[in-house]
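Review the following:
>
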Amino acid sequence: MRVSRKAFCAALLGATAIPAGMAILPASAQEASIAFELAQQDLGATLRALARQGGREILFADADIRGRQAPAIRGRFTIEEAVRRAIAGTDLVVEQQAGALVVRVRARAAAEDGTDPAIMVTGTRIRGATGPSPVIVMTRRGLEEQGLPDMASISRIIPQNFTGGQNPGVAGGGDQGGYNNLNNATTLNLRGLGSDATLTLINGHRLPYDAVNQGVDISIIPLAALERIEVITDGASALYGSDAVGGVANLILRRDYDGIQASARIGGSADGGNVQQQYSGVGGARWTGGGFMAAIDYSKATPIYADQRDYTRGLAPSQMLGSGYRQVSGVLTGHQDLASWVSFELDAELADRRSRKGVAYSVTAPVTTYGQLSLPIVRSYSVTPSLHFKPGGGWEATLAMTDGESATVSNAKRYINGLTLGRSAYDNHLTNFEASAEGPLARLPGGEARLALGGGYRRFRLDFDVRSTSGGVTTIARDASERRESLFGYGELSLPLVGAANRMPWLDALRLSAAVRYERYAGIDEVATPKLGLIYAPHPGITLKYSWGKSFKIPTLNQVNQARQAILLRANQFSTQPTPPLPAGSTVLLVAGGNADLRAERATSSTLSIEFKPLDGLRIEASGFDIDYRGRIANAVSDYTTAFTNPAAANFVSFAPSASQLHGLIAEAPLGLENQSGQAYDPARVAAVVDASLRNTAREHARGVDVAIDYSAALRGGGQLQLAASASYLDDKRQPVANQPYEERAGLIFTPPHWRARASASWQSRTLQFAAALNYAGSTLDRRRPPQSTVGAFTTLDLSGSFRPAIEHGPLAKLELRLTVQNLLNEAPDPISNPSAASIPFDSTNQSPIGRFVALSVTKQW
């Protein structure tokens, strides 16, 4: 099915419109009352019971409610009334945010300046403050209600995220479009700047990198262990360090759990393949001053083969469009008060994934005759113990240590003129120590000035072992262990100039913030990155935010240590010749690979946003962003055949090299000289050297607009309605070398489209819940060869519904049945034309071959 832009716009408006004839009230008015019968108990247990019984998301910081008791709640109340009774007589308050009830501490300082000093959100290290950058918040329950089963699915619903690169949906073994996904990982790629330019955290701390591209695999975290996800769509190196160029994603885990929950899900694609099974469990306990949560998830999926889709039947039947896999992952979190002024917390993650990827090199021969079959295995773990102190005066401090490892081993069988066995092993290890403190400095007219300070040490290592065996001979391409160390320190200052105590007409709030971070990477680079922020609210329902800052990405260990190559070519293999042309019979040495002289990539980012809340439950936000990304690491000579006439390559071509120069270049290549010239190597006949090594040569400029709308309301009769829509427009250009023209990097095949959007609607009562979502990825241009063609937009409709029996006791109590249908209309990818008949005939970086997918799940709580 193909959907026009007009049809999409109409559908988007329809999805966010209020259904005719439906009486809608603000969530705070006339919400249906529910009969509650809760004894006096721990406040956390009461809030969770209210959330389960009322079907509403109730968010709170565990530190806020530890040791607090809730009175008995008996009688008929709305959810909000029941929560207010539970926290009566405390310094806690409850408010609504995006359909959820948020319980917060309202201390004296918070009441005066409108902030909450107990809550830490991604985008600032100041407790209770609002950062100047836009933040996307997705709760676990909200994701479950939309039928999303795992973290890999989440990467596909964020409009600001590009699904190319390290994403299991990329076909051709994960290599289509020049990307690489060695082990079936899922990494976030905000703004399409690369998975290594998006920083992913768990509970605010780093994880070990995955494979070779310096991304973080989010698919190893079971969705059942998640509390929420917070995504900053702005540069944030001043707060979090390297990699935070496109933005930051913080996966916040459940701190503890009370009881046991088990779920099972099975589903498959209507056109065949992708048969999925998933089994997960969550358990835990709470006690005075402590608690823990343990989650485990087992999932597996069968591949999608080319002969299972009409549009790929021209490929070899054994060609895989989607990989098969089996994964087991687990998470353990816990906390314990050691004294009134110190507590201990622990996060731990463990995962094992085995995948199967097949790529056919011919349309007539199977993978096992002419192709490659890869069997990657990933084993990873991470553990983070931390101590949290309250020394007094409103200050809090943390000491944390992270140790983690992500090891990938891919065994491959390559069938070309016989069998070649390949083995690629990449072992990433991380050790991180960090100390931080935050607290008030002085009283300002608008509230308390607060300061956050921190510093630490980080060490990460990448072990390479790449080898192949053919005819009984083993060749080692790479066998090394490289590591990098960094020292860092940071500070952030928040200055509330206008707040509740001194607000005036057209000046409801005014806050300034400033942050700076210094990092020193031994032997590579040292970087200082500042960030300035302004928050201005002319009215309680209108907030303007502006941020300006610098970010950076340190070169990956793979980029620095990529194996050097020295390839000898005939001069006539180049499509263009210099003037005058090279002598007949001459050769050219092409050198490529890593570069020990690489330095940090640097970016300057600015974001301006406005948030508008015209009525209870409705929020509208629009933001514009600009990222000037300099010193990008790239091959300066992307097409060696045009090196002699391409102005961008002029500085990387040298003529008449000496024999000693050639000897030095060949000596740097582990495999020595790769002679592809068809003639014996003679230094005297080498007329030129083309250097295609990685260098800090490229510059990228990304700019665009994000828009988000969400609305939550209570309906007559006790239902709850939530509507949401978000869209992102991206314009991205890249300059391969200084003083050369910029090239398009968005809106082209295998790159992010200019437009991505998602609209959703959800309704629920005590027993039923329904959700619908419309996903849109805009069209792109295919300019790889004339004539230029257009790859059509990709629009899918997803539905999800659940039933919860209104039974308080017995085997059916706390049971949920859910049916999910993704891509209801069975939208198929738009076909593309390729030079090779064996290439994947659609853009899998933006369009999926899964088709209509139906799944049924059962969840039970005890």
